[in-house]
Design goal:
The chain is of the alpha+beta class and 386 residues long. 48% of the residues lie in helices and 10% in strands. It contains twelve helices and seven strands.
Length: 386
């Protein structure tokens, strides 16, 4: 009998379930040759490789170390009249009435590189758009962001590698800083929230652009939407920079279409099959809708960042063109006010008595203190005006 046609090497399609994850993604594995009969051994092909996550944990370490350095520079015992947790020495926190997040003073954050629009525009300190991403207002702020970064970031780095996720994190963070700077002109802003919301937005766009390789698509989409809505809703509380959240999310959503696109299984199967069995009609690497989303997103990113930087350095305040937009960052209720004007006080020193009058509320208080430095007076002013 004549020899039969050997079977074409199979590209196995499996469902990869991440322990503790919220979705099942389908990905192909490549068969490897074995010396004897029986089932072959399969390995992941490079287009769907699982990476060892090291960059996101490194980002967490950098944020924690930066916070410790900030607290060292803050040196509350020397620069404030009173401190919380004084047993920590120069690492002790500003009084709870001044900073309820258990952290440094606003002056220290500004020295360390917080986002201050006036300094960015008029003193050419554009680097603050980047450095503010690594600063945090306090222990609570740091813990919340770092736990979220570990949960979201490690999952994405395993799937897409450190290069794409690292770039996405940095660019989305810059997008959050830029969007915040266009609306918040009088206060400083710090935190990794813009970059975190960028990762969250990229998860949504990654689901959309790689729709065909997901199992339980609608359940995954619904879960993501609930998480996104809840996190954005938290941003309407006072003293939370929701503009950074929104800017980071929009940047990450568009970046996800650019960085997290995956090839289709038909192209992968054809690429790894034996050349003797290649299909006469070549399979496209990406579907048309994927390429359309990729191009549109890249164009919108270029236009958005360019327009945003031009408006920022021209001193444009978007609140003047969108009078209702401030509600996106803080929604006033009977329980709290959205007044975020920077505090300032009139001071009067007579012998051993200091009298401060808050310029925002006209509240007055006298202190039996003398020979206070500027930082100590500013700390007392912050406590009085809050």
């Amino acid at each position: 009998m004549g020899g039969g046609v050997p079977a074409e090497p199979e590209i196995q399609i499996q469902v990869h379930s991440k322990k503790g994850g919220n979705s099942n993604s389908i990905y192909p594995v490549e068969p490897t040759k074995t010396g004897g009969p029986g089932p072959g051994v399969y390995r992941e092909i490079k287009h769907f490789k699982k990476w060892f996550p090291w960059l996101i944990p490194t980002f967490v370490i950098v944020n924690v170390v930066t916070f410790l350095v900030t607290m060292f520079v803050n040196n509350c015992p020397q620069n404030s009249v009173s401190c919380f947790a004084g047993f920590l020495g120069r690492f002790s926190f500003q009084p709870f009435s001044e900073n309820p997040l258990l952290g440094p003073s606003s002056n220290t954050l500004e020295k360390m590189g917080a986002l201050d629009v006036d300094k960015v525009v008029h003193e050419h300190q554009g680097w603050r758009l980047f450095t503010c991403m690594w600063l945090h207002g306090g222990v609570f702020h740091l813990l919340a962001n770092m736990l979220s970064l570990l949960v979201i970031g490690i999952r994405l780095e395993r799937e897409f590698g450190f290069v794409r996720i690292g770039l996405l994190y940095i660019i989305a963070g810059l997008g959050g800083s830029l969007f915040s700077a266009l609306f918040i002109k009088s206060n400083i802003s710090v935190g990794a929230s813009g970059a975190l919301f960028g990762l969250l937005g990229s998860m949504l766009s990654e689901l959309i652009i790689n729709w065909t390789i997901y199992a339980n698509k609608l359940a995954v989409l619904l879960t993501l939407m609930v998480i996104i809505v809840i996190n954005l809703a938290v941003g309407i509380l006072p003293h939370v920079d929701n503009f950074a959240h929104i800017g980071g999310f929009m940047s990450g959503f568009l970046l996800g279409f650019v960085f997290l696109i995956r090839p289709q299984f038909g192209w992968v199967s054809q690429r790894y099959a034996s050349s003797a069995y290649s299909s006469t009609s070549a399979k496209p690497k990406f579907k048309v809708y994927q390429m359309v989303l990729w191009v549109i997103s890249l164009i919108l990113l270029i236009i958005g960042f360019t327009a945003g930087l031009v408006m920022l350095f021209r001193g444009i305040d978007l609140n003047d063109h969108c009078p209702w937009c401030h509600y996106m960052s803080c929604l006033p209720t009977s329980r709290w006010s959205c007044n975020t004007e920077p505090v300032s006080c009139m001071s009067e020193q007579t012998s051993n008595q200091l009298t401060l009058t808050c310029s925002n509320s006209n509240k007055t208080r006298s202190y039996s203190l003398s020979n206070l430095n500027t930082s100590q007076i500013q700390g007392l002013c912050s406590q009085l005006c809050r």
